[in-house]
C-alpha cells in the first residue's frame, strides 16, 4: 500500500484454537501481527480463550495481547489485582464496558500494566484522548462488526492509538487509503475481530489476506 500510512502492526483478536499455533507463528514470521486473546473467567467459549489455550499461547513465541473482560476488567479499573497471570503477554487491553474512562481509571490501569512491564490499552468512542499513560483503541463495535461512519484523526500530539470496527480483507484498502486521517510517520495499529472470522472461528486465510493487502 505505497503512498499510505501502514499500521505498526495488526491485532487479530479472538484466537480460539490451540491447533493453529504453528500457523499463527508462521504468519507472525511474515508480518507484524499481535494476536489478541479475549479473557473472561465467566465466558470460556470462543471467541473467549479457556485456560488450556492460554497456557498454550504463552509459550508459542508470538506477540500477544490480553483483552481482559468481565470481572477481570472490573478489578483492574477499581485498583484491585485481577486473578490473571500476564506472563507471555506484551500488552493488556481492559474492556471495562463503562463508557468514557475517568482520570482515576486511566491511572489505575496504567499503574497495573506498568507494574507488570506491559503497555495497557483502553477503548474510546470519540476523539482520541491525549493522555499517554495508556494506548487508545477507537471502538464502538465491541466485536459486533459495526463499521463506524467516522474515525477520529491522529497526529503527533496523540499517544499510541488504534482503530477497530467492521474491518476485514474486503475493506482494509479503502480504510487505509481514504477513511483514516493519520499524520505522516505517526504509528498506529488496527484491531480486527469479526471481520476475520468465518462461522464464528478465527479464519487465518482472512488474516493473511489482510496482511498481504497492507504490507505486500
Can you describe this structure?
- The protein has 216 residues and is of the alpha/beta class.
- The chain has 6 helices and 10 strands, in the order E-H-E-H-E-H-E-H-E-E-E-H-E-E-E-H.
- The strands form 2 sheets. The protein has an 8-stranded parallel beta barrel with strand order 1-2-3-4-5-6-7-8, surrounded by 4 helices. It has a two-stranded antiparallel ribbon with strand order 9-10.
- 40% of the residues are buried.
Topology:
Blueprint: E1 9-13, H1 21-30, E2 33-39, H2 51-58, E3 64-68, H3 70-77, E4 91-94, H4 103-115, E5 119-124, E6 135-138, E7 161-163, H5 172-179, E8 188-192, E9 197-198, E10 201-202, H6 204-215
Parallel strand pairs: 1-2, 1-8, 2-3, 3-4, 4-5, 5-6, 6-7, 7-8
Antiparallel strand pairs: 9-10
Search tags:
216 residues, alpha/beta, 8-stranded parallel β-barrel, 6 helices, 10 strands
Which stretches of 5+ consecutive residues score pLDDT under 50?
A: none
Largest sheet: 8 strands, parallel, barrel
Mean pLDDT: 93
Q: Helices and strands: which structural class?
A: alpha/beta
State the total count of DSSP E strands. Answer: 10
The string of secondary-structure elements, in order, is EHEHEHEHEEEHEEEH
Q: Indicate the overall shape.
A: globular
Q: Reading side by side through the largest sheet, how are the strands ordered?
A: 1-2-3-4-5-6-7-8
Which strand-content bin applies to the residues? 15-25%
Helix content: 25-40%
Rounded to the nearest angstrom, the radius of gyration is 16 Å
Number of helices, counting only DSSP H or I runs of 4 residues or more: 6
Kindly report how far apart the N and C termini lie.
7 Å
Amino acid at each position: 500500500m505505497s503512498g499510505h500510512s501502514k499500521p505498526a502492526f495488526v491485532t487479530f483478536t479472538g484466537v480460539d484454537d490451540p491447533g493453529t499455533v504453528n500457523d499463527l507463528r508462521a504468519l507472525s514470521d511474515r508480518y507484524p501481527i499481535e494476536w489478541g486473546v479475549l479473557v473472561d473467567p465467566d465466558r470460556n467459549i470462543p471467541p473467549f480463550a479457556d485456560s488450556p489455550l492460554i497456557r498454550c499461547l504463552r509459550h508459542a513465541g508470538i506477540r500477544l495481547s490480553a483483552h481482559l473482560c468481565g470481572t477481570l476488567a472490573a478489578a483492574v479499573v477499581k485498583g484491585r489485582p485481577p486473578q490473571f497471570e500476564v506472563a507471555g503477554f506484551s500488552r493488556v487491553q481492559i474492556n471495562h464496558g463503562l463508557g468514557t474512562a475517568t482520570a482515576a481509571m486511566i491511572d489505575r490501569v496504567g499503574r497495573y500494566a506498568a507494574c507488570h512491564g506491559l503497555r495497557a490499552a483502553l477503548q474510546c468512542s470519540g476523539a482520541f484522548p491525549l493522555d499517554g499513560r495508556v494506548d487508545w483503541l477507537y471502538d464502538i463495535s465491541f466485536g459486533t462488526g459495526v463499521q463506524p461512519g467516522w474515525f477520529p484523526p491522529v497526529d503527533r500530539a496523540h499517544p499510541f492509538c488504534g482503530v477497530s470496527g467492521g474491518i476485514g480483507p474486503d475493506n482494509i484498502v479503502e480504510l487505509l487509503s481514504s477513511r483514516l486521517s493519520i499524520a505522516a510517520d505517526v504509528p498506529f495499529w488496527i484491531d480486527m475481530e469479526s471481520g476475520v472470522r468465518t462461522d464464528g472461528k478465527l479464519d487465518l486465510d482472512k488474516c493473511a489476506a489482510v496482511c498481504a493487502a497492507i504490507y505486500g
